[in-house]
Specification:
Four copies of one chain form a homotetramer. Helices cover 75% and strands 0% of the residues of chain A. Chain A has nine helices and no strands. At the A-B interface, helix 6, helix 7, helix 8 and helix 9 of A face helix 6, helix 7, helix 8 and helix 9 of B. The first copy, chain A, binds a DNA duplex through helix 1 and helix 3.
DNA sequence: TATGAATGAGCCTTCATTCAT
DNA sequence: TATGAATGAAGGCTCATTCAT
């Protein structure tokens, strides 16, 4: 029990550091975040960070791990619902979009993780394994919803669900990425006065996607 | 005329620097590119770079400006063709994807530009204005193709063309981004042996998009 | 008595820490030894080390103090033997060389101590006094053997025994130091295939020394 | 010519940095020397040091390279004299001792180099090659003098000249090392009032060595 | 007495930018 | 115009030491 207590405290500190890192990134951007500032935000000494994380990269990976874990938790609940494939996919998309809107830093951390992955500069660790596991899990939910939809006839059986899933996943990321950059919303010379906000855009995206894969018969 | 000659020389030097920066980024990645190496690649003194660009950021913006300019040139030709809206959109998408596949650095530079935009750390300059103009132009081509399609009946009139254009644009970027990170292709546990390559993924994406917006009547 | 018991326990802990430090240094080298690792090796908390030693330097000094104490113990026995001066000196040298070969860390600790001494950054303490005392003692044994030898005619009476003692002492250290750095053994381009090992080198050294000071009449 | 001029300037700067490093080490000791202070001593920016040396280790190696080069220069002249082997060896020893007395930092740098060598943490470079070459050269001079002495009968033919050379070399280093630590000179409780200085000590050392190896017939 | 989490000074190193030539 | 040597702020990270428990 006593040990559990210390471990709990350790876990809390770890979370505090992740919180602080998220906050600093949110404020200054990913590239501008420094260990110094994260420490100050957490009200800790600089060296303390290294008691909980091997290095800066690990903090970022921990952010990603937390973010993807939280997201998967939500996706997991959706996939268990008794609905048609197309409806599940619909909800998965909405959940993802809502999640990123609320936690934009998680999006950046995921990009960071993928960048390391791409460049093969990830030391194997429990953290990276967890990140990998989470990434696969999210993909799996999408693929499952497509498989369900194809089986129940709500989704057209015209594409390999794996490939389709990958496309949906990455297209979503692109839209989310763009939606985040509020400025781009004004880049199109849009004379109309209708609202051009985040939610409406994402809604249309999901709608288009749905039309593109749903079975019309 | 003498002045023109000198200006021409200046322009050539400028292009040389951009070329070199592109090459260095292609070789080492965006984060690893240094002014030193760009200068060496261009066979110029490091200080010379600053005669043509105010700072490193401006070089990156110039890359984006050139890239978006070249892309727009191709898109412009497509939009002038006498085809249905859906067909034009189709070709626009293909052109974009081909372009990025051939010039991945332009994609990175565009991301860089948008990142600065988002964080409001762009000093106003002729360069940033040009970048902005190009971004709007590309968006406009997409919107135009949608408007044409709605008008000629090839595209469903169910969404505001501005919003739809924005979505298509950003979703495309997401897919392209993902397609670039070869590793993610294997992240889904994919048992099948079918090819899961770049081209096939993008093909499906365009197909889905088209289905999602075309008019079926 | 109760107090004695506690003091004994304290002494045991102290020795444990010294043991652990020696082991860590042996494993990782002098510069790479950290308080953290010494504590871990001793199965103690890091802070506990500071209950027994004022700081890291004191641990090193304690190593030196122990090492020089052990060495002196052996030298003391030799000097008491009923032999000629040259023979005693011979044995002293062999004992020293054997000792260092068996306990290389003591050699490093001695170098450390002398370095502090040289740079005048030794706070006076019982520890430093003890180190100083031990160093003097070892020197004295050598000087005594020389004096004995001069008196019994086995050693030439051509040099001040104090000076000669100092020289023998430091020359021995130099040879031992070199013998420890296995690499240097190969630094001379040595074509022959004869063995060029530690023992043979030191044997020759003692031989040369002996020839250099013994009385030939 | 113009190029030579620039190269000369570069060489001068390089030497300035080495000078400054030597000075800082002389003042603060080897371990306490920092790049910051070396830069300040040289009246240069910290970053400038890295234009002339890859890292701190290279500065130290450069000190060693310079020192061993200068020493070898002196040894080379001695070995060319038309004297008996024992006399040449005598002079080599004296030259070495004078050199180190005048340039104690070179002694430390040599120890540093040998330490890296021992621990196999030397990246191969022109600098390390030069250091290695110099070390071999010095050893060779000693061995040559012994070979000459054996041949001309001035040195006893009782030991392999390679081994003997190594011993002389390392014993000398030990004596020099000790002689440098002025404090140790007082560590023996020396009641006499005779001078116990550096020069006299080293003189005796050479004398003993000579007696130990010279041919008495 | 014993602990180990916390500290922060200080280390080496990088690199965009400047400026004398 | 062209240069590249020089700069120094800033970064990530280590580790001896302290102190609340």
């Amino acid at each position: 029990m006593r040990k559990t207590k210390r471990e709990r405290k350790k876990e809390i500190r770890r979370e505090l550091i992740i919180d602080s890192a998220v906050e600093v990134i949110r404020r200054n951007g990913f590239e501008q975040a420094t260990m110094n500032e994260i420490a100050r935000e957490a009200d800790l000494g600089k060296g303390t960070l290294y008691l909980y994380f091997r290095n800066k990269a690990d903090i970022y990976l921990a952010i990603n791990e937390r973010g993807s874990g939280l997201l998967n938790q939500q996706l997991r609940e959706i996939i268990l619902q008794n609905k048609s494939g197309i409806e599940i996919l619909d909800e998965l998309g909405n959940a993802y979009l809502r999640f990123i809107k609320k936690n934009p830093v998680f999006f950046m951390a995921a990009s960071y993780y993928e960048n390391l992955l791409k460049n093969n500069i990830l030391t194997e660790s429990s953290l990276t394994k967890e990140c990998e596991k989470h990434a696969k899990e999210a993909m799996t939910y999408i693929v499952r919803s497509l498989q369900i939809g194809i089986q129940d006839g709500s989704i057209r059986n015209s594409h390999d669900p794996y490939k389709l899933g990958l496309i949906i996943w990455s297209a979503s990321r692109g839209v989310v990425h763009a939606a985040h950059q509020s400025e781009i919303l004004k880049s199109a010379e849009h004379s109309g006065s209708e609202e051009m906000d985040y939610a409406s855009l994402l809604g249309i995206f999901i709608d288009v996607l749905r039309s593109g894969i749903k079975n019309d018969q």
